[in-house]
């Protein structure tokens, strides 16, 4: 990939990223479930869509605006462009679409962990696709 404005020691570890993911998955599913139940009380047909939109939006919205999610904030990491600049909305979408697809099974999650550990800049496939890094704050 080449050089980045960050030293290897500034890149988020697999452990930090995993901790952030765990916080985010629990919190996002809980919030999405509550919203889905509320929407389902009004329209059964929209409950699943509401769940999906809240769950996906949990990652894309905060990363596009602040470069981090609740989980990343708790563990002290954030997403930036490979140039060190604030992550763009397009990059937030790109990296999270691959996260959603990659989170579809335990095997794909484990493949993502291996990808991060084996990458020069601790990037999963979505980070490489979106030209992003996850760094310690």
From TrEMBL:
Residue ranges of domain RDD in the record: 11-130
Spans traversing the lipid bilayer: 20-42, 49-68, 100-117
Protein's cellular compartments: Cell membrane
InterPro entries, A to Z: Pra-immunoreactive, RDD
Entry annotated with the keyword Cell membrane: yes
GO cellular component, one term: plasma membrane
Membrane topology: Multi-pass membrane protein
Assigned keywords, A-Z: Cell membrane, Membrane, Transmembrane, Transmembrane helix
Keyword Manganese: no
Top-rank lineage group of the source organism: Archaea
Predominant place of localization: membrane
PANTHER family: PROLINE-RICH ANTIGEN HOMOLOG-RELATED
Name of the protein described by the UniProt record: RDD domain-containing protein
Species assigned in the record: Halorubrum californiense DSM 19288
């Amino acid at each position: 990939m080449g050089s980045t404005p960050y030293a290897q020691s500034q890149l988020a570890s697999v452990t930090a990223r995993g901790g952030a993911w765990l916080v985010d998955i629990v919190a996002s599913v809980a919030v999405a479930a509550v919203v889905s139940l509320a929407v389902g009380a009004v329209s059964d047909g929209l409950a699943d869509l509401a769940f999906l939109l809240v769950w996906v939006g949990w990652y894309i919205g905060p990363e596009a605006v602040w470069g981090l999610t609740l989980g990343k904030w708790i563990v002290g990491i954030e997403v930036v462009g490979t140039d060190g600049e604030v992550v763009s909305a397009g990059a937030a979408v790109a990296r999270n679409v691959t996260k959603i697809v990659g989170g579809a099974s335990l095997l794909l999650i484990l493949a993502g962990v291996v990808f991060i550990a084996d990458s020069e800049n601790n990037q999963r496939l979505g980070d490489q696709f979106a030209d992003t890094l996850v760094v310690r704050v």
